[in-house]
Amino acid sequence: MVERETPPKRVVVEMWSDLGCPWCYLAKSRLRTAIEQRPDADRFEVVMRSFELNPAAPKRPETVEEAFIRSHGGTAAHFMAAERRIQAIAREEGLEFTLDRLSANTFDLHRVVQYANAEGLGFEFFSAVQDGFFVGALNPYAPEALAGVAESVGLEGRRVHAILASGEYADRVRADRAEGVELGATGVPFVVLDRRVAAPGAQKVPVYGQLLEQVAARAADSSTS
Prior knowledge:
Elements: E1 11-17, H1 22-36, E2 44-50, E3 62-63, H2 64-72, H3 76-92, E4 102-103, H4 107-118, H5 122-134, H6 143-152, H7 157-164, H8 170-182, E5 190-193, E6 197-200, H9 205-224
Parallel strand pairs: 1-2
Antiparallel strand pairs: 1-5, 3-4, 5-6
Helix pairs in contact: 1-9, 4-5, 6-7
Domain DSBA-like thioredoxin: 12-208
Protein name: DsbA family oxidoreductase
GO molecular function: oxidoreductase activity
């Protein structure tokens, strides 16, 4: 009788993030690249976790510089200089990064992300929304736009409209943020790998790669012990 080889244990990578956070946009791409570079990439499951950076943000969209100045002070010139620095980093890494973005409350978006998570498509949905947002091709505050993205990744657009018209998943959004804080998050991006290692901030691809290797090795050890 031929003994079947035990498949490698799956590793869950949780990422606390918010839509308009530029460093979250970079971190998501870097984490995805680090996973794709591995020969066992399919054993890693990325789960999106909700973390509103500014729960008091208004629902009505405003420009990103207006939102920043209202929340943090300073001048538009200083803010845009910082934006251009991040834009340069993003473009060096092959990412489009428009400066012409809107900002608004993201709680409703996170509720839809929770629905996507429940269907096993949270990372795909959030990635599509955030990528479209930063390249300037998507208004994430428009229900029809979110429904369209949902359908493009295999979700139901009708469910998105129903969720946005209700209070579904609100408790889950709040619970995610509270859990992130308990694990040590003071902001985002915040990545937790296999509930063993936490990585705050936008780490470089090699750093994520080292952490993935670390947790993969530990997961393999635990499965054979």
